[in-house]
Write a sequence for this structure.
């Protein structure tokens, strides 16, 4: 008697992991900034903004976190947030090479 042919193996497909689905609570501004920057680079503007908001809350003088928070708000079309974040960056770093460009962006933002 011939043996029955083997059944094909069942391969479970795992759902892709969304590392930005839940924003952790950070205790250090640099950790929040790094996580937010990764989310921003992945185009995940909401989680990026949430992490970067933590960074600037933990360290209000963290100029680059304000700058990148403005970028996240730009992706969310949160013009008030963009204005606030970019203005704080410019106030903290008026001589930064990016400050002049950000001032121009601030002038041209929609209401």
């Amino acid at each position: 008697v011939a043996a029955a042919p083997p059944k094909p193996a069942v391969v479970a497909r795992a759902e892709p992991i969304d590392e930005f689905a839940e924003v952790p609570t950070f205790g250090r501004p640099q950790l929040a900034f790094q996580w937010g920057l990764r989310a921003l680079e992945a185009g995940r503007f909401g989680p990026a903004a949430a992490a970067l908001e933590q960074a600037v809350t933990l360290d209000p003088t963290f100029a680059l976190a304000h700058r990148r928070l403005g970028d996240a708000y730009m992706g969310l079309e949160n013009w008030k947030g963009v204005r606030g974040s970019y203005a704080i960056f410019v106030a903290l770093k008026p001589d930064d090479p990016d400050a002049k460009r950000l001032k121009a962006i601030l002038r041209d933002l929609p209401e």
User: Anything to note?
Assistant: The mean pLDDT is 90. The two ends are 81 Å apart (CA to CA). Helices lie at 29-41, 45-58, 63-75, 79-92, 99-108.
